[in-house]
Amino acid sequence: MAVAPKPQDQKTTREQRSLLHGINLRTNYHVLSKKAFASRRDDLRAAYESGAYLKAPESRGQAPPNPMTDPNAMEGMMGMMKGNMAMIIPNTLIMSWINAFFSGYVISGSINPFPPRRPPFPPSVLPAADRLRRSETAFPFDHQV
Asked: How far is CA 106 from the centre of its chain?
């Protein structure tokens, strides 16, 4: 079901790896000497500012394109929809089997977990204010016919 990822072009790979290089340099700065770190940082900063690692340096500073017009983005969205449908269909089958095999079981096979009449609390357990409130609110339930 899973589609193999498309191979990326060289410029896209270079852009992603340069960002990873910057992250790794920032994370592991303590391993390098101050002079080596400063020179690598300055070189990387100059390359970032000039756009040397960008896959499309001419589109620098422009708004991103509409994803609905990009065929690669449309394929990604269709792939997600296919994955969702691949999960909905088996779930629907399982729900229909449960409905067919266990129909009426919950209603007919369950035992009432509550006794027909609950015993009242002994008055010594409850404070006086709670006794008064309980007697007012629980009157219909305690005095069943």
From this structure: 33
